[in-house]
Design a protein that fits this description.
four-stranded mixed β-sheet; six-stranded mixed β-sheet; elongated; 5 domains; Beta Polymerase, domain 2; Hypothetical protein af1432; 747 residues; Ubiquitin-like (UB roll); alpha+beta
């Protein structure tokens, strides 16, 4: 707070000044930095706003239009451009007067309408918690939502005028508005380097939050000021004399710590008012950066510096571009006095921060000095503004330094979450809790149902719908952005896959054992522990669970393990059942002597349906136990399966469909059609009427040929259902041929 200075608060005379500045004549007098055509556009915006707000009054009885004018006047202080001034005049028109964005675009152009729209969106946000981390997130979200820095500047001007006139509002609203200003808007002003606005918002919030403390402190400061007036004048004369003797041109201004910064210092350091020593200070403005350091040397020769109270914000500028040298000296009568040394361009940045790139350009149109703003950050902003005149690009550059690339969204209970840009509903669900993520089935954003892959935008209110029976979908890995969501999904899928693989491995080993004449696997009773131990030593597994999982994943072949187990059982005196042996061998699948695995579609990670042939119920199928990938199901006449059978015949097992599959399955359809308008829509309608869901469409290469080939990945119940879909397609005009199959890049 070392460089804080007080801003006089509105008094009776200030209120009169406010009323004067709130007249349009007061605004017109400040437009001299604009071109004639820009000035006329601002006048047109005023006439429109005046008409729109006709009949509306503020709490103090003044016409409502006085508020937009006062906001525009504040924007002229920062020398903002005509578009920003027009938006300032029109900023309440959409919200309060029913004016549409389309109407604003038609009358004043898209840039002005976008600014007004941005302000309207920010107006709808209300902060209602005092938690510091939430306040920080809210501030960042406000900044992130503003696609143009001028939106934030106009918003701060709007809040400044509302705070100046807060006493006209019902007292019941003071606390909420003043708290929000202190927690949200004052720090934003500080972050953007708008120090005079920052100090004013703090002091006005202090006045309305703690009126008694404010009044008491005001009296104390006034008394101290009159008591020490002579002392301060003496310091000023001595300092002026030192600079005159050194022939250094300077501008010296007295400055006083703001009331709120005095109050917070008393609170945080547990001081009485009398113990706060650095209330008074001087700002020394010099021609160049090197003069700042010369001035420091002269002052240190005049008065003794207080150890540890020197700060060089020129060599290391603050993040908001602020630069000055600060030192505290022991003046006459042992009173501590703070001095700040800065150049004129540093002063512009110190008071106006991010607005300085407009302000300085207006005041120094021909100044091309490389260090004209004394800060690389603000210099780079100036360069962008000069090169592109693109406010959005300018603001994007500012935001790189202001906060990380994130989006800020609300939970239904107005908690704010920060997520990486591009994060989806599923990322949001896992950010709340891994159980919420695992059970997510649907979501609503701002009250509307949306797909789970929907990317979140700043300010979205996100509501997740969960179901106890739900579990993560492997497809989520294609679109989640956060590491937390990705790792949680993978962990769940891996656990689920291993559990399923264990079940599949147990079925495979049991069937292989039946074909050897043993009804079931040996139990885990004490009597069979030696047999299991010997079997595990043979396979190299640590546990029974691990062995069965390996069989399910295809890392171990059930037949070989079964033969070893039979050998161990026989050694221990157990004999195969001759009747079972005969029956099993007589009815066994001719693939490898193991009974068929029945599939109903409820299998997940342990069973995969090959993408090369997309088998569906009704097809003749065979199963391949891939190394480490579980059971892969192919159509029997699939060329890929034929190649695998020639290489690894022992890895094929018998599989068959359940009589009642529990879900639909994906398959491919290739359609050749005449290249005509509406062709795709007709095909989609034909598939929809057959109740075949379209999962993916490959349009192939765009061409001018008469015929065009499309590939549909569809979801059907079985071969009979597929036949209905094909029949519907063949009956469609513009379809020349429709058949199953075809290469695809589908999932």
């Amino acid at each position: 707070m070392g460089h804080a200075a007080s801003t006089p608060l509105p008094t009776v005379s200030a209120a009169v000044a406010n009323a004067a500045s709130a007249s349009f004549a007061g605004l017109t007098a400040r437009l001299d930095y604009l071109s004639a055509s820009d000035g006329e556009q601002v006048r047109a915006a005023y006439r429109f706003a005046d008409q729109a707000h006709l009949g509306q009054m503020r709490n103090n009885g003044e016409p409502y239009i006085t508020h937009p004018i006062a906001v525009a006047v504040q924007c002229t202080e920062w020398k903002l451009d005509a578009q920003a001034l027009m938006a300032a005049l029109l900023h309440d028109a959409m919200e309060d007067c029913g004016v549409t964005k389309i109407e604003l675009i038609e009358r004043f152009g898209s840039p002005v309408a976008e600014l007004v729209d941005g302000l309207t969106k920010l107006d709808k946000l209300h902060f209602n918690t005092r938690e510091e981390n939430q306040a920080e997130s809210f501030r960042k979200m406000l900044l992130a939502m503003a696609r143009d820095v001028r939106v934030i500047l106009i918003k701060l001007a709007d809040r400044s005028h509302n705070m100046r006139t807060l006493s006209d509002m019902p007292r019941s609203k003071w606390n909420r508005i003043a708290s929000e200003t202190l927690d949200i808007y004052a720090p934003i002003a500080h972050r953007l380097g708008l120090n005079s606005t920052y100090r004013e918002l703090q002091d006005l919030s202090f006045k309305h939050l703690w009126p008694w403390r404010y009044a008491t402190l005001t009296k104390a400061v006034t008394k101290a000021r009159s008591r020490r007036r002579d002392l301060i004048q003496k310091v000023q004369k001595e300092v002026e004399a030192v600079f005159a003797a050194a022939a250094m041109p300077v501008r010296i201004a007295g400055r006083e710590k703001s009331l709120y910064s005095i109050y917070t210092k008393m609170q945080t350091k547990h001081l009485t008012f009398a113990q706060v020593t650095d209330i008074y200070g001087f700002r020394v403005q010099v021609p160049s950066t090197i003069d700042c350091y010369k001035a420091l040397g002269l002052l240190h020769q005049l008065y003794k510096p207080v150890p540890g109270k020197f700060k060089d914000h020129i060599a290391i500028a603050k993040l908001n571009g602020y630069q000055s040298l600060h030192t505290t000296l022991v003046g006459p009568a042992g009173i501590n006095v703070e001095f700040q040394m800065r150049t004129e361009s540093m002063h512009v940045v110190a008071e106006s921060g991010v607005a300085a790139h407009w302000l300085y350009k207006v005041n120094h149109p021909h100044d091309l000095a490389a260090d004209r703003l004394g800060s690389q950050w603000l210099q780079s902003l100036l360069d962008i503004q000069d090169e592109t005149h693109d406010a959005a690009e300018f603001w994007d550059h500012v935001k790189v330094d202001l906060f990380p690339d994130a989006v800020y969204v609300f939970t239904p209970k107005t908690q704010i979450l920060a997520l990486p840009r591009g994060a989806t509903v599923v990322d949001f669900a896992y950010a709340i809790h891994s159980n919420v993520g695992d059970r997510t089935v649907a979501a609503r954003i701002n009250g509307e149902q949306v797909p789970l892959r929907t990317e979140l935008k700043n300010g979205d209110v996100v509501e997740v719908v969960t179901a106890q029976v739900s579990s993560p979908n492997p497809n989520w890995l294609d679109f989640v952005r956060t590491g937390r969501a990705r790792s949680k999904i993978r962990h769940h899928l891996k656990t689920m896959e291993q559990t399923e693989s264990e079940g599949l491995g147990e079925r495979l080993l049991q069937q292989a054992l039946r074909s050897e004449g043993f009804e079931s696997l040996p139990s885990e009773d004490q009597a069979y522990v030696p047999i299991w131990d010997k079997l595990l030593r043979f396979t190299g597994n640590k546990t029974r669970y691990e062995l069965l999982t390996d069989i399910g994943l295809g890392k171990r072949i059930a037949n070989i393990v079964a033969k070893r187990l039979v050998h161990l059982l026989t050694e221990a005196g157990h004999k195969p059942d001759a009747l079972l042996l005969t029956r099993e061998r007589f009815t066994a699948s001719d693939t490898n002597g193991v009974g068929a695995i029945i599939l109903d579609g409820s299998e997940s990670g342990s069973v995969q349906f090959a993408k090369c042939c997309h088998p569906i119920p009704g097809d003749k199928i065979s199963g391949y136990l891939g190394r480490g990938e579980g059971l892969v199901v192919h159509m029997q006449d699939c060329p890929v399966a034929s190649k695998l059978r020639n290489k690894d015949a022992e890895r094929f097992i018998g599989v068959d469909w359940s009589e009642e599959p529990k879900r639909s399955f994906k398959t491919l359809i290739t359609v050749t059609g005449s290249n005509s308008k509406g062709m795709l829509a007709k095909m989609a309608t034909a598939l929809a009427s057959a109740e075949a869901d379209i999962i993916d469409i490959d349009m192939g290469q765009e061409g001018r040929h008469e015929a065009r080939q499309l590939r549909f990945l569809v979801s059907v119940r079985d071969t009979a259902h597929l036949e209905v879909a094909l029949r519907n397609l063949r009956r469609t005009t513009s379809v020349l041929k429709a058949e199953r199959g075809g290469a695809a890049n589908s999932n």
